[in-house]
Amino acid sequence: xxxxxxxxxxxxxxxTKILFILVRYQNLEESVLxxxxxAISHTTSSSTHELLSNIETRLIDIYQxxxxxxxxxxxQYGQGKWRQNIGGLLQPEDWKQKxxxxxxxxxxxxxxxxxxxxxxxxxxxxxxxxxxxxxVETLKAVHELDSRMKQLGIKGQSTQERDLLLKLxxxxxxxxxxxxxxxxxxxxxxxxxxxxxxxxxxxxxxPGGELIFWLxxxxxxxxxxxxxxxxxxxxxxxxxxxxxxxPRTAFLGASxxxxxxxxxxxxxxxxxxxxxxxxxxxxxxxxxxxxxAVNNNLTIGTKAPQQQLQHLLAExxxxxxxxxxxxxxxxxxxxxxxxxxxxxxxxxxxTFSKPSVN
Length: 358
Fold this sequence. Notes:
The protein folds into two domains: 2-156; 172-351, no CATH class. It contains twelve helices and two strands, in the order H-H-H-H-H-H-H-H-E-H-H-H-E-H. The chain has helices at 2-40, 46-77, 81-90, 95-117, 119-165, 179-184, 194-205, 223-236, 271-282, 287-296, 305-322, 341-351; strands at residues 250-257, 329-335. A two-stranded parallel sheet has the order 1-2. Helix 1 runs antiparallel to helix 5 and helix 2 runs antiparallel to helix 4. The protein is elongated and about 90 Å long. Residues 5-105 form the NWD NACHT-NTPase N-terminal domain. Keywords: Repeat.
């Protein structure tokens, strides 16, 4: 994430520099090149014409690079913060390199202009450079003030959202990377369970795949190890098994490892609330939606699983999906759900088959 924040700074820094490039060359075109072109229009000197044409060609090249930079900037930052970060992971932008390409071009123009126009124009540009330095310092001060004001607003909003999320009863020990789970379960050994891990990987990346991948077999055949391996790979962004690429569009949304004999992990009443809480903690865009759902029904933690699924997950994910344009697949890894046979027989089938959930 630190790399993403650095890229944000690089992008903004490049945009500030571009502003003064445009000011500089507008002055060059209006006050220098136009007059120079009129002055040499009656001469037959091929070298003079060639030099002026060379400057104009290089200016066009700079404008082309500037426009491409601005277009990429708008596409990257004209969306929510979480989608920026995810977009950055899927398709990173090297803003420093893009600015370097522009810088190389304008240095060539500067040299050509020095050769043609002499010290008078350079003095003018030095004054522009001084204005640029002063303006950049002013912009930085304004940016810092704006950032502090936003931080105060975000802090207040985050505190309110945090207070609402804390109203949800959760099972923190049920997460795949909790101490209790890791002390009782182990990952798949390298090269083992290759076939089933490949099937899960294909399903996770398939935008048209089934809603649920249900893995079932006899007890002791490694289902928990498979679930642990999948959850870890999705979170760490590493291949699920040997010979596969890291996940591209599939991300770990939440995990829940049931255990009948563990009082911290055997309460179905905390299942959907824990999943919703985990999603909110993982994805910033999801947090205010869950907080609003809790605010709309402050006793949601005591409701039946079907109601919790409907209000905390189905409705909020529907809103998130409509506002997300990246092909993201949020995977919830659940282990040992079959230990709750009574709930499965009575409610699970109807819970997961409601149209609103699908």
